[in-house]
């Protein structure tokens, strides 16, 4: 594949000399996109790793920061939209008129809440963060054990969204096919996921790092599940609002504010917006590729019984004794 066709975070053209030296000592692998390097237990494409290293070097947390974390394809876009809408409602209660465009109508959730490693820190360890007002909301796909080293003892809040790995896999396959504009071999993507070798993998360690973190400190980490957000959206949005310190008032609950946010952030509504059909991320990924079916259990239309069995066995082994169930 021609490197120049890839979004910047998947390429290998932005590495400092220091990073080149570092990666020459790291475990190495390769997939259909390019080289992967294992850093602190997690696999990264080279430029993404540069973003992680820049973040580690330069990020200074503030106490009020909010970090939205996930393994790719677990509900990141949705969680970002809900968080944006929850804070926006606080601003809007008195000051705005009906003609004001909601932020979600003028930009995609990824444009409003950038990733540390793909966007803000991709090229520099000292990006300009002055445009973020408090609470600053950021996102990441890094595992918690990496994130926590940079956050040190900061009390900033982390929301992690987790999704059934089988649906994550199917979603990832569609996403890769869409942005590479070719049909990616499903079997080899499946094998890499099972072996844990893939961008931000292994999946199991990723989920477990946040799961354990949330058990240790439930005030700092909220562990959410895509499946619960689908089956009881209002309850989950209220839970998110409480954790973020902006709970719904009784009055709001009575006037249907919760349902309005659920509706505003629904897949149907967001994917129909002009901005999400025409724009691209900082990394040139078209916004529309973040919206597809949004169903629980779509894996049943794609995985063979053998594939399902294989994943079930891995899940059982990896999550044994952790209290985490799918
Ligand atoms: P990312 O990690 O690359 O940002 P992410 O948003 O986590 O991607 O995952 C995309 C999935 O979330 C897609 O799932 P699917 O392929 O199974 O359909 C996408 O459809 C789904 N999704 C995006 N927005 C929403 C939403 N508002 N509600 C529910 N699901 C959504």
Automatic annotation (TrEMBL):
The keyword Transferase applies. It holds the Pfam family Sulfotransfer_1. GO terms for cellular component: cytoplasm. GO terms for molecular function: sulfotransferase activity. The keyword Transferase applies. SUPFAM superfamilies: P-loop containing nucleoside triphosphate hydrolases. Residues 64-323 form the Sulfotransferase domain. Keywords: Transferase. It comes from the Eukaryota. Belongs to the sulfotransferase 1 family. This is Sulfotransferase.
